[in-house]
Design brief:
Helix content is 76%, strand content 0%. The chain is built from 16 helices and no strands.
């Protein structure tokens, strides 16, 4: 008889609790910032291209700086790197507030968004690999679920709070201030973590070592298949960048409605994560991954065709629910299959894939919406996601054959480091 897992196993560790609480604060800040930027730019320009460029401007520093940041995360204490990056992110948020008060031109806003992207590029490989150094591998899945829950709690409340702040103050400046404060609270939580120094390198590092994460992923087909599935699915299926258009012109819901539309996917993800903490480990995670990504595409199509607020919220709720299962499987695969000496560099490559899909996906959505309209952009993207699932399933059959995550171990690699 299969036993239910201990739903609170990871939370018994005070470091996991502190990290989760900090992620709530930081996640709220980032979501408030994203909501405010989208509303400000679309209200100011009335142009879908302006929303697309938000993703493109943040993608460039992710491509430039994430891999070097991953190399740094494997050479220096990851806590320190995460603190510095989040201080930079908070500074960018306060800069956006100042630019709003001074009615700065659009290039200044985009320059500050470039700084936001830079901070996130530096933070990602360090921030996402701190806990695997400090907790038992048996708790990885449970920890990922609770960290996802805390993050999605933030992304539920963050957009809603951002919308309320914008509506109450008649502008976006105070929303940006709230964003910066949230990030600083996460910095405070990180200061309580030990600064774990990695073991010294046994040989002089070369350019090959910098890109060892990419080389490692290429040698692990299961991980490569999961990342590729996420890359193209999110690239095609993301509708979040166009929510200001749907809120203002299609659903006529205003800034408060925009906040709830942005919160709906996270509400679905939070509910799913809490359910998964009570269930036994997934027996066929590869097959489940393919199914939930296809479901994400179908729900995206439904949102694009919806003309009512209620149906739109339900469809966005489902996109978040499906995505939560996908995220949990991918994160656990990364942590289980990667030796700690490579985690920073592997995480940095994963971050480039995710950021490429998220930010370039935002640009793609804005561009196709400007050319063909918001509804064809979203519906076509959802259908493209379903097609990607079929292609990945055929090209990497090993993914559908994947056994329980707890049975996996890092492959024995020689000469990688």
């Amino acid at each position: 008889m299969t036993r239910r897992s201990d739903a609170f196993a990871a939370l018994r560790n005070p470091l996991v609790r502190a990290f989760a609480l900090g992620r709530v604060c930081s996640g709220m800040g980032i979501q408030i910032l994203s909501t405010a930027v989208g509303w400000q730019l679309y209200l100011q320009t009335g142009d879908a291209w302006s929303l697309g460029f938000v993703g493109l401007v943040q993608l460039i520093p992710m491509i430039l700086f994430t891999v070097p940041s991953g190399n740094a995360a494997d050479r220096f204490p990851r806590r320190n790197q995460a603190i510095l990056a989040n201080l930079l992110l908070a500074g960018a948020a306060f800069g956006l507030a100042l630019s709003s008060w001074l009615a700065a031109p659009l290039p200044v806003v985009y320059a500050l968004l470039f700084l936001v992207g830079t901070a996130r590029a530096i933070a990602w490989p360090a921030q996402n690999t701190i806990l695997p150094q400090l907790i038992d591998p048996a708790d990885y899945v449970n920890a990922n679920l609770w960290l996802s829950s805390s993050f999605h709690l933030a992304t539920i409340t963050g957009p809603a709070l951002g919308g309320v702040l914008i509506a109450a103050t008649g502008g976006v400046a105070w929303a940006y201030v709230a964003s910066g404060v949230g990030v600083l609270l996460f910095v405070g939580a990180l200061t309580g973590f030990p600064a774990v120094r990695p073991p010294p390198a046994t040989a002089k590092r070369t350019a090959k070592d910098t890109f060892a994460g990419l080389a490692y992923i290429r040698r692990v087909p299961i991980f490569l298949a999961a990342i590729s599935l996420d890359l193209f699915a999110v690239l095609l299926g993301g509708a979040v960048a166009l929510l200001p258009i749907f809120a203002k012109d299609i659903l006529h819901a205003g800034p408060v409605g925009l906040g709830w539309l942005r919160a709906a996917p996270s509400l679905g993800a939070l509910g799913t994560a809490l359910i998964l903490t009570r269930l036994p480990p997934l027996g066929r995670p590869g097959r489940i991954l393919l199914v939930v990504v296809a479901g994400f595409g179908a729900a995206t199509v439904g949102f694009g065709l919806s003309k009512t607020m209620a149906l739109s919220l339900v469809c966005l709720f489902l996109t978040g629910a499906f995505d939560q299962v996908s995220v949990t499987i991918r994160q656990t695969l990364e942590q289980i299959l990667t030796p700690d000496r490579l985690r920073g560099r592997v995480s940095s490559v994963n971050a480039v894939f995710i950021s490429f899909s998220n930010e370039l996906g935002a640009f793609e959505s804005g561009a196709t919406a400007a050319l063909f309209g918001a509804i064809p952009s979203v519906v076509g993207g959802g259908l493209g996601t379903i097609l990607v699932v079929a292609i990945v399933a055929r090209h990497w059959p090993v993914l559908s054959q994947l056994g329980p995550l707890a049975t996996l171990r890092p492959p024995v690699e020689s000469g990688v480091d």
